[in-house]
TrEMBL record:
This is Sigma 54-interacting transcriptional regulator. Gene3D superfamilies: 1.10.8.60, P-loop containing nucleotide triphosphate hydrolases (3.40.50.300). Residues 214-445 form the Sigma-54 factor interaction domain. SUPFAM superfamilies: P-loop containing nucleoside triphosphate hydrolases.
């Protein structure tokens, strides 16, 4: 074991990406498990198949890597390839107790291993459907996996994911497969690897083609969408988290379009618009006369989505009674409409759910069922706020503007000026993509007013964007002064990049000249240095009669910058200094 640990540590130190560290971890774990299988009571009667690393810190997946036994390296799970995804029951035990779990797939028996590596708790489930869900159990059995070991990836105070190992051993069905000693060794290897898996960056994902539902894909979103593409092809529930307006509904429709159900209906139910007492009916339908006000039959969202996908948004708003009903549907795939005495119906539906709330906190507060939470939290995907996806803001603005312009005129083009792009990037976006779309609508309307109505060619200028942001009442734009400074900084960085391409460099110390540029500009506009100091909150300098010297000092910094940029002749504010001295 010491030699195995030494080899693992050396491989982890050499790894540069999450994928590399995952491969370095899975190889010795599969080796140790295979060794135990070959030496145990089932020697020669079974085989290890594959291992998988699931990295899911916080509220969403970050990495999903698989290694087949005997493979030279691990590989990122990609769309179009078979993928074993975790069962809700396994993840619940791993996340709650931070312990290893073994699963007899055929019998649906889960054995959490707590304390000292011994089996102290057993949960005998009714069958594979309850342990894994129908699709998960069938997928494992199709891949010849009769047994599964799941080991948590632990950091101090948290579980950030898990490692699953699959085996085929018909002779071990109904018997203890992995003993405490083997599971303890696997857990030790996982504990050593966890900090590396959590901290190493993901390898850059391949470029994804744009489409109508996801026309813009930034650097940070690329890996998330790659993960969502894999999840979309499965039948397990996807939990879409993230702030309001970040694009959960759009991603839900995109997942449906990537799924095997794409030719069927996509149905969306926003629970924010449904009173508590009507939630069961809106989900499962009702018969005429089922309650006061039920004057006609209502099939319900599940029936309308039959064969397709149902997206339930704001799942945290679901009442406890309706939560119990939804849990039954997810586990048994059967439901009954309110007032329907003819029997249960089958739910042939793929479920996607969305929330901007912390469901874990809602569980702790008693507002959300713990069993439902773990049932829908199998494949979590958390969308980032737009403020953390700044590289997406300009292309999204172009897309939204062009779409808006196309509604006004069948031909022609609309453009966002570079200065307007910088103003958008400098703003803050608590409302995310929804807020950005509103700002583009407003700025477009302001631009049309300037042009006297519809026009074939139109450009959004910075003034249009800044006026549109100004209507946000302080909630949408950052301080205007900061936005202006940000745009100036963008220009300096642009120049630095241009010089870098030419093999030159722009000294950061020259940025100190910005203060002098502001002061000189104010002096020229006010035609007075004293007025400029007062305007910029430095009236005390004037009162102390130090403003002449201070002005010359700041302007000299500007001149230094001017010369560094290759400009000859007088500085831009030298005339103001000379006028004072004469």
């Amino acid at each position: 074991m010491q030699e195995l640990l030494a080899t693992l540590c050396a491989s982890l130190l050499a790894a540069r990406t999450f994928e590399g560290a995952a491969g370095a971890t899975l190889a010795p774990m599969l080796g140790r498990a295979s060794e135990a299988l070959g030496a145990g009571r089932h020697a020669g009667r079974g085989r290890m198949l594959r291992g998988m690393v699931h990295l899911r810190p916080g509220d969403g997946y970050r990495g999903l890597v698989v290694m087949e036994l005997g493979a030279a390296a691990a590989r990122l799970i990609e769309a179009g390839t078979p993928a074993h995804l975790p069962s809700a029951s396994a993840w619940r035990w791993v996340a709650t107790y931070g312990c290893a779990v073994t699963i007899d797939v055929t019998l649906g028996k889960v054995e959490p291993h707590l304390g000292g590596g011994g089996v102290v708790v057993r949960e005998k489930l009714a069958g594979p459907d309850v342990a894994f869900g129908r699709e998960s159990a069938a997928r494992l059995l199709e891949r010849a996996a009769t047994h599964l070991a799941v080991v948590p990836l632990r950091l101090p105070g948290s579980v950030i994911g898990m490692i699953s190992l699959e085996a085929d051993c018909q002779a071990a069905i109904g018997r203890l497969f992995w003993g405490p000693e083997v599971l303890g060794a696997l857990q030790l290897l996982a504990d050593v690897a966890a900090p590396h898996l959590a901290s190493l960056p993901m390898a850059p994902p391949p470029a994804a083609p744009a489409d109508e539902l996801l026309p813009v894909l930034g650097t940070k979103m690329a890996g998330l969408v790659q993960m969502a593409r894999v999840f979309a092809e499965q039948e397990e529930t996807i939990l879409l988290g993230g702030p309001t307006g970040a694009g959960k509904s759009r991603i839900a429709r995109w997942c449906h379009a990537q799924s095997r159900r794409k030719s069927k209906r996509f149905e969306a139910l926003d629970l924010m618009t449904v009173p508590d007492e009507l939630q069961m009916g809106e989900l499962f339908g009702w018969k005429k006369g089922a309650f006061s006000g039920a004057v006609t039959d209502n099939p319900g969202a599940v029936a309308r989505a039959d064969g397709g996908t149902l997206f339930i948004d704001e799942i945290d708003k679901l009442s406890l009674k309706a939560q119990a009903g939804l849990l039954q549907v997810l586990e048994e795939r059967r439901y009954r409409a309110l007032g329907d005495g003819s029997g249960e119906r089958r739910a042939d539906v793929r479920f996607l759910v969305g929330t901007n709330a912390d469901l874990g906190a809602a569980v702790a507060a008693g507002r959300f069922r713990e069993d439902l939470y773990y049932r829908i939290n199998v494949l979590p995907v958390k969308l980032l706020p737009l403020d953390e996806r700044a590289d997406e803001i300009p292309p999204w603005a172009h897309y939204m503007l062009q779409r808006r312009h196309a509604e006004s005129t069948a031909e022609g083009r609309a453009h966002v000026a570079p200065e307007a792009e910088r103003a958008l990037v400098a703003a803050r976006w608590p409302g995310n993509l929804r807020q950005l779309d509103n700002i583009i609508r407003r700025a477009y309307a302001l631009a049309l007013v300037e042009h006297g109505g519809a026009t074939r060619e139109i450009t959004l200028e910075a003034r249009h964007v800044e006026r549109a942001l100004g209507y946000e009442g302080g909630g949408g734009a950052k301080d205007p002064a900061f936005a202006s400074i940000r745009r100036a900084a963008e220009a300096v960085v642009d120049e630095a990049e241009r010089r870098e391409a030419a093999g030159e460099a722009l000294d950061l110390d020259l940025a100190e000249a910005f203060r002098g540029v502001v002061l000189g500009t104010a002096a020229r506009r006010k035609n007075s240095k004293e007025a400029a100091f007062r305007l910029l909150g430095k009236a005390g300098v004037v009162q102390n009669r130090n403003h002449q010297k201070a002005f010359r000092r700041e302007i000299e910094k500007v001149n230094t910058l001017f010369r560094a940029l290759g400009q000859n002749g007088e500085g831009p504010f030298d005339d103001l200094v000379e006028k004072d001295e004469t």
